């Protein structure tokens, strides 16, 4: 019994190491210099990469802000519009067919989808600028949001709305006082998920952005192409931080809801 | 159909963001591949399609993408199922319930970069092996990145999908009351292995099958990980399409769109099959 217990503990430790090693490694590399084979640890521990990229023309700060603006815009629009659209689909007589149509753009590879749509984006002068990327990412994030919320609009919610109407309440009153308080937590979770979809996006952004809009993922790819692992690691750290915080909030939030 | 203005807005949103882009994108790719539009095209022709199938590139590319998706998915499903069966209590509360979310914070491009640094010839694993005396020079370490067997790609994709399936299976383990079924079987004389292989695994597999197929569909279009950790040949579908459409040879563009057309048809067909066979809701 004790052997099994110990084996289980070893497996759990291995899993913990597997989950934590990437984050620790990337942070460590971002503070490193001169990492020659066969040294396991880099020879110098320095804040040089961080200082250069933020204060000496490394342009990582603007990339972080651009990524943040795009992700927040996409998450806000996708969540709000998805919430409205999902109600229409959920109570529609062709619910399943409409939902299937919603799945299509979400399931396709963003990079191939972007290549097929690039012509239209060029015609509308939406390539190489922020608006174009936000619109392109919405084509992926909005269907996700619609699918996410469709399950929320069930018979119970409809009955609550009908009850308010029977008692003389208006549609907007039912929405503000009944629907919104119930949907609050889901809206927040959906916002986080859409933020992450946008934050993680690389293929579609590189095609529609033409490399002119330098989001963090584009920066990471540039640094990898230049074989600059220390700057790439730093950009990776900046890419990971917001999702870690959001996922932690998400998890905390879900736990509180469950309790 | 449109009793309220909000319904018109909802329909318009659905049309503009879901239906229209797909219809426009697909028809553009189709027309381009048949020579109906495009700078160098001169009218309807099947030449682009026949040129595409003259080499085996496209068929190999689809098989290769499918193989990578199946390999990483199999690994993820088996290991996450084992985690759910053995450690289901550990992953529902406490530190592990947080740790499991860590890989979800990794964009594909970051995971690819990390595994290139970890598994590469001069990577962390190679350095540890050297320090332990297992290898004596950098070349002695086996190629695990940009390698023949795609080990780097499979491990990176496995790392990215493991939390999704672990959370799915630990959730299913509770909602499907598998523990209670297993206890009932054990009290009726079944061995532990029998309750695992005849109760737990079949229930988990059956309930997660639509998710597995959906994940397969997503992985079929994977781009960043194969781009950074794969070899130049064979290429995954996304990498092949980008190469044909973004590089310098203008005569390759119609073939690139033909690849996009084939990919879209395959994905949409798979999606229709999985959504139709899934009797439950399509909710995420």
Tell me what you see in this structure.
The complex is a heterodimer of chains A (259) and B (284). Chain A is mostly helical. Chain A contains 11 helices and 2 strands, in the order H-E-E-H-H-H-H-H-H-H-H-H-H. Chain A has a two-stranded antiparallel ribbon with strand order 1-2. The radius of gyration of chain A is 23 Å and the shape is globular. Chain B is mainly α and 284 residues long. Chain B is globular, with a radius of gyration of 23 Å. At the A-B interface, helix 1, helix 3, helix 4, helix 5 and helix 6 of A face helix 1, helix 3, helix 4, helix 5 and helix 6 of B.
TL;DR?
The complex is a heterodimer of chains A (259) and B (284). By secondary structure, chain A is mostly helical.
Distance between the termini of chain A: 34 Å
Specify the structural class of chain B.
mainly alpha
Cα Rg of chain A: 23 Å
Strand order of the largest sheet of chain A: 1-2
How confident is the prediction overall: mean pLDDT of chain A?
A: 88
**Quick one: biggest sheet of chain B?**
none
H/E order of the elements of chain A? Answer: HEEHHHHHHHHHH
Gap between N and C termini of chain B, in Å?
26 Å
| Unreliable sequence segments of chain B | none
Helix/sheet category of chain A? mainly alpha
Oligomer: heterodimer
The overall pLDDT of chain B, averaged over residues, is 89
Please estimate the helix content of chain B.
Answer: 55-70%
- Could you give the order of the helices and strands of chain B? HHHHHHHHHHHH
Q: If interface size is counted as residues with C-beta under 8 Å from the partner's C-beta, which chains form the largest one?
A: A-B, 76 and 81 residues
Task: Please count the beta strands of chain B (DSSP E, at least 2 residues each).
Answer: 0
